[in-house]
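Q: Could you fold this chain for me?
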Amino acid sequence: MQFRFIITMLLAGVIIAGCSGEGDSPADLPAQDTQASEDLFGLPGEDSDMAQAMKAVTERRDARRAKGDTTAMPAATLKQYLPASIAGYTSGTPSTEQVSVPGMSLSRVSTTYTSQSGARVTVTLVDYNASASGWESATAVFALPISVENDTEVSKTFQTDDVLINGFESLQKATKDATVIYSLGGRFVLEVTATNQTSLETARSIAASVDLKKLAAL
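A: Sure. Below is the predicted structure, expressed as structure tokens.
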């Protein structure tokens, strides 16, 4: 992951989630998250894109919990969502990770694909189904239209017609590293990084080859 960006998003989520006081009931949290986002970003409350994303994510999370879906899926199952192959690249061996601690479970899978020229594409998928709500708040930040352009990079968030599918993309001008990150259903984070790129098209197309809508619907 581009940890500097992800950490920024997580800090935003922690700020949002941390604004709830002791003794708050679960029913109070969506309203408090909305108020926190308004305070932090100056947004118009429940009418903001971020507030709508938070509401959709919270409703999806509650629906999963009502069905007893409270843990991250096994990494072996998650691995099936990675591209089996990428044209022009040779697939490496997938790496998997499963983390379970009280109150949190997380699974991660990642595969690096290499071309004959030495260019690499790495696809990483994380399921944080039972992790802290701060993650959900953080990825909701993707619903905000944020863009940065300077001497070294062009970066921006992007939104889709599905409130549960939003993301972030970045092209590093000097290193020619391209990154596309999707937040899916308030549960999954998909990241595609590609080296030796002059545009984001390769990373975008590889990310689009993953079944984004299916993951966002889980």
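A (continued): The chain has one domain: 3-217.
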